[in-house]
Amino acid sequence: MQVDDVLLSRLEKLSHLHIDEKNREEVIEQLSEIVAFVDNLSELDTQDVSDTFSMSNLSTITREDTPTCVSKINDDILNHAPNSADRFFIVPKIIE
Amino acid sequence: MITLKEALALSKEELEAFKDALKTQIEANKELNGYIDVNSVGEGVPIAIKDNIQVDGWAVTAASNILQGYVSPYNATVIDKMKAAGLSPLGRTNMDEFAMGSTTESSFYGKTLNPHNAEYVPGGSSGGSAAVVGAGLAIAALGSDTGGSIRQPAAYCGVVGMKPTYGRVSRYGLGAYASSLDQIGPITQNVEDAAILYDILSGHDEKDSTSSTLECLSVADKLDKSRKLKIAVIQGHTDEASDAIKSAYTKAIDALKSAGHEVVERELLDGKYDISAYYVTATAEATTNLARYDGIRYGNRVEGKNLSDTYIQTRSNGFGDEVKRRILLGNFVLSSGYYDAYYVKAQKVRSLIKAEYEKIFEEVDLVLSPVAPDTAPKFGEMSDPMKMYLSDIYTISVNLAGLPAISLPIENAASNGMPVGLQLIAAPFNEQTLFDGALSLESTINYTKGN
Fold first, then answer.
1. Phi and psi torsions of B126, nearest 5°
2. What is the domain partition of chain B in residue ranges?
3. A38, A46, A68, A84: which to substitute to probe chain B, counting the most B Cβ within 10 Å?
4. H/E run at residue B443
5. Residue A58 · residue B213 · CB < 8 Å
6. What is the DSSP letter of B10?
7. How far is B332 from chain A (nearest CA, A)?
8. Partner-chain residue, chosen from B167, B344, B386, that has the shortest CB–CB distance to A33
9. Beta-carbon separation of B328 and A33 below 8 A
């Protein structure tokens, strides 16, 4: 599997990342090498293996759905946010 | 440096005096760059904390530019547990950015030196934690291990590093990298201290949905190095390893036999499949976990032309090269058209790896394994990402299968004098056997820093 410029552009979009022109060739090369390596997974026969993996054989842990709120955390997050006012995060204008 | 066990016996006055002296010592050895900064909380025994574990009021940044400006608003569960047990956080330690790396070179705060020789890396990603313990600048430290990030730097720095069973230690308050693999664990001067700290950290936590509800028994008070165990070595496991690793491996096998353990041979899948299953799984999860860093709610924002451009500018400026690579790769393995061939396939292979270990542990108590294919590399030698990924070959199957493992120093290499650590691996939730075997190996080998 070869990564090319078209695929890199698609991955940049999915990742919300921009790779500079001067680094593109190197990134494509590195990603291609890694993807070519992990292609070895296809050598293993996994036809009879379930496609879900779970670390624990126990069922999912559940708890009562009781709402809690430590308001200090909210306050601290807002105080240290890049831009906030009146208990809101300020973001660039979305609607013109 | 006094041990954790000794420190826990100090009076309040003695402890205060010790902490003052420790801070002076840290200040005098700044060039190691193991600590990012040295803030102190509470009156307990000081423990160094990796920069991805939340301590209320501390800047906690995963050594990333994107989290500059973030101040943690709460304690991780492990921090609350430590404080309740008479320990207290002192100093946050350097690491690879978002725990993605094997050398701590990808940190926003610059490189950390190996305490044995400043030309060599301390390992990673918990390189700062291992370096400060190895340099005698911390009694013990917390690290996190996603693919070897506690065990490998511990081995490179000549100290003990332990990764608990997945689910044994709460991850509430740990900056998430790969959620099905991450575990917090202790880095200490010796095996007994690791057991003491493990006991403090472990146990069920309702704030972490992956935290196990199985009964959690204390280990340190029941340590028994006289137990005779059946320990497996893996056929051909050291074929690709350096002479330094082979020498330590042989020495450890002889020591285990002389201590009365039975050493048997078993087989495992070729490690190249571990690497593939790991890098597909870890990058997929990392992509998802790191989507939250968009510059809106915390950390470092770079304003763009509009909201979308703000995301892109923030992330492109905030993340380093290795993190970007893993995000791109994670989106590749998760994207439509590739999902089945890579992500789903990797989960199936993961099942195979877990089943193999389960089979081995039906018959044996522990597995002995190298930690890395060689001693610590020099700075710059691991700049090729693929080369770095391949060096994880001995540690990542443990994370993929969720097993507990402990790395401990065996000897210093004849070639370059750098420490060689090996690991013991146990069945899930069998930490008692893991520590018993490690204590036996440690006391038979009797490693000292200068040997």
1. -85, 45
2. 4-267+358-445, 271-351
3. A38
4. helix B431-445
5. yes
6. S
7. 6
8. B386
9. no
DSSP-derived secondary structure letter, B177? S
Torsion from C-alpha of B131, B136, B142, B148, nearest 10 degrees: 40
Is residue B149 flagged as an active site residue? yes
Give the per-residue pLDDT at A59.
66
Q: Between B191 and A53, where is the model more confident? A: B191
Separation of alpha carbons B325 and A12, rounded Å: 10
Superfamily of domain B4-267+358-445: Amidase signature (AS) domain (3.90.1300.10)
CA distance B65 to chain A (A): 13
Of the pLDDT bands very low, low, confident and very high (cuts 50, 70, 90), residue A95 is confident
pLDDT at B451: 44
Average pLDDT over residues B349-369: 97
Chain B residues whose beta carbon lies within 8 Å of the beta carbon of residue A4: none
Residue appearing with tokens 């708890």: A63
- Give yes or no for a contact between B86 and B45, defined as CB atoms under 8 angstroms apart: yes
Residues of chain A contacting B315 with CB distance shorter than 8 Å: 15-17
The DSSP letter of residue B43 is S
CA distance, residue A30 to nearest chain B CA (Å) = 7
> For residue B108, what is the enclosing H or E element?
none
Mean pLDDT of the B369-379 span: 98
Q: Is the pLDDT of residue B300 over 80?
A: yes
User: Is pLDDT above 80 for A57?
Assistant: no
Of B50, B133, B41, residue with least CA distance to B80: B41
pLDDT at A55: 81
Answer yes or no: B102 catalytic.
Answer: no
Question: What's the rounded mean pLDDT across residues B142-147?
Answer: 98
B187 vs B173: CA distance, rounded Å: 18
* Alpha helical stretches, state H, A16-86: 21-38, 71-80
How much is the mean pLDDT over chain B?
A: 97
What confidence tens digit (pLDDT) does each residue in B10-58 have?
A: 999 999 999 999 999 999 999 999 999 999 888 899 999 999 999 999 9
**Which chain A residues are Cβ-neighbours of B317 within 8 angstroms?**
none
Backbone dihedral angles phi then psi of residue A86, each to the nearest 5 degrees: 50, 40
B334-343: pLDDT as tens digits? 999 999 999 9
Distance CA B443, CA B357 (A): 27
In contact, B103 and B62? CB cutoff 8 Å: no
